[in-house]
Amino acid sequence: QVQLVESGGGLVQPGGSLRLSCAASGFTVSSSFMSWYRQAPGKEREVVATITSAGGITNYADSVKGRFTISRDNAKNTVYLQMNSLKPEDTAVYYCSAYSLRIGNSWGQGTQVTVST
Questions:
Q1: Where are the beta strands (DSSP E) in 28-110?
Q2: Which tens digits make up the pLDDT trace of 55-64?
Q3: Which residues contact residue 14 at a Cβ distance below 8 angstroms, ignoring those fewer than 6 apart?
Q4: Are 3 and 26 in contact (CB under 8 A)?
Q5: How far apart are CA 7 and CA 61, in angstroms?
Q6: How far is CA 79 from CA 32, 43, 53, 73, 101, in A?
Q7: Angle at the Cα of 7 from the Cα atoms of 109 and 57, rounded to 5 degrees
Q8: Distance CA 34, CA 56 (A)
Q9: What is the pLDDT of residue 111?
Q10: Which of 20, 93, 96, 105 gives the lowest tally of CB atoms within 10 Å of its CB?
Q11: What's the CA gap between 96 and 36, in Å, rounded?
């Protein structure tokens, strides 16, 4: 069955780093359009980063460009979000999503990232 499981969230100080993981099963991430979203309390969901199935082309929200990196490990069937120079405004629940013609759109359960002193 199609499943996405996020992990790696937690509490970090401003300027710190976290690496989020999105472990996929039931499909291959290399054949899917993968995205990271986040949603802060009282705010709308926003796209943070994306990576295409063919070519691995990446795109980022302006707010995280230069600080975050999306990548995938095809052997592990896992997508990552490396987050550096974290700011309090990065605090949110981060979600992994996948899309392909075969499976449609799928979402993980989310992982909490809190940036605070």
A1: 33-39, 46-51, 58-60, 68-73, 78-83, 92-100, 104-107
A2: 899 999 999 9
A3: 86, 87, 88, 115, 116, 117
A4: yes
A5: 21
A6: 11, 25, 12, 6, 19
A7: 90
A8: 10
A9: 98
A10: 105
A11: 5
